[in-house]
Hints:
single chain, alpha+beta, Alpha-Beta Plaits, 3 domains, four-stranded mixed sheet, four-stranded antiparallel sheet, 10 helices, 15 strands, about 20% strand, globular, hydrolase activity, acting on carbon-nitrogen (but not peptide) bonds, in linear amidines, Amidase_Cbmase
Amino acid sequence: MSPASGRARKLILGWMKDAGLRTWVDQMGHESQWEVRKSEVTDRGDCISDEEGVRFQSTFLGSAALAGILPVSTLHIANKRAATVKDALKENSFEATEESLLQLKYDPKAVWGYIKVHIEQGPVLESLGLPLGVVNGIAGQTRLKVTVKGSQGHAGTVPMSMRQDPMTAAAELIILLESLFGEISSWPGASNVIPGQVVFTVDLRAIENMVRETILSELSHRMYQICDRHSVYCIIDRHDAMALSHLSKVGMLFVRCRGGISHSPAEHVLDDDVWVAGLAVLAFLESNLYSSMQKVQHNFKKVQLKMLLDSAGTMMTVLCSQVHSRNCFKPMKIIHKASRRISRESEFFMYATPAQPLRNKTAKPNIGID
């Protein structure tokens, strides 16, 4: 959604093309790749765009479009500079319309599941000396946009006792919210003017919806009380985000990262850990995909599964070659041998839905690898 993301997209697409993969980008900026060999099973990978949605405070634009739950009105959301989502897409040569959004939607019947490999973005795995962690619950997210409105005035002439200052109320609210607080802005933002309005964001997450709703209800009640005491009022707008769970079951593997650092140029993962994560995904596909496919496609053969796994293994080799990992060129038979060993020793996949986290060893995964 930004010029930087556009440059990164071109770089990744270049790597894929150099490796002989067929690539394409849809109208929401999703990159899809690989057609290594033909089979009756669609073997492809999707790189989903705009997961965090910071530029427009509109999380999961890409995955919401794939799940068919992205409102057309989202295209007209504007950021601080009055640029809209539609403008940003147009800057990247994407023409997003109501018709094009409908074309992006996946058919739920054609999706077995969604598997995601992601850096941990925390220090726990590194502290335990473990390369991987299985996610047993994905935290549902509620973002709040809190607008505190008061009375704008001259900072030098309005007595302190008669002010309706939204900034002092916002400051107390932020102390209440502590680590949930994110971004803040005030209007008009002049040094000699009591602000008339303050806007800040809140990011609230919990694995269980009931826990999140209980916390949200209590926080909202206390926020209104604080604003009443300061003779100002606040508007709390909420946005809930968990897009792909509307389309299918989801699963996630965490890969350790150095120092737990994320969203920073210092973000770093070990090449070998990326390789192990790839083996885990292959092991899961090998142990679950055949039985799952037979349920929806009775003539599905094991040879097709081998073709699918070979394609996934080829894609792993392509990705790993870009980070120069010495381990990424092992023969496919070694991959399968390691996959079977890992499959016997570990449980890789757990479901997590918005309603409640639950475990299921008879998963029906798709090969959407983010």
